[in-house]
# Entry
Amino acid sequence: MLYLLFLAVCFGASIIGAICGIGGGVIIKPVLDAFGVLSVSAISFLSSCTVLSMTAYSVAKSKLSGKSEIDQSIGFPLAIGAAAGGLIGKWLFDIVKSMSADPNRVGAVQALCLLIVTLGTLIYTIYKEKIPTKKLTNQVVCIVIGIFLGILSSFLGIGGGPINLVVLFYFFSMNTKTAAENSLYVILFSQIASLVMTLVTGKVPEVPLTLLIMMVGGGIAGGICGRAINKKIEEKTVNKLFIALMAVIILINVYNIIKFI
# Structure
């Protein structure tokens, strides 16, 4: 029963993640934390692996279809920066974890950071039509921005989440669907770097192999469904879904902060 619950969460989250370009981890991580059945480290690892599987499928499918909207002059330096940021974020997570004997403290810090990021994202999204955007092309600046995104992605165990979209909206003047595809591309690199570091340092948390396989499979299946839905709905519908999702995530994170404290 527990496995089916986890599968349902990661499948549904990956569908929404593929539609909105947020990876799905921003839903998986706080929801599974709220259940409280696994450690914070285990959930972060499972969430990252699920997001990695979904983004790998989505990006590969987009490339093979020949209809990719990824601007390599911007997307590649962002992705390289995100990979470096993914390593830094994983290192910061290990530091915060080692500073307290209570693993719940790490969950509280993650939930608080995610709450702030999500609240800021929601406010920006609501008022974005009134906020003038930029169109940056400097690759060094792109790398720096990518590092920032990668740190948040890896430290919070969410893949990238809503902050990616806000950055792509504001700094690169992308529309919602183009930003969603570029966001998944950046998330892919940060999650690969984070997973490699976890494997190399031997800090893989104990998780049931069957559960890991089910969640990865759910991530890929969700990516397939999400891509199909994304092609059929209008951009304004994606925006409404994104705003509603942010509101729900804010409430879940408030609950998690109270629970962990």
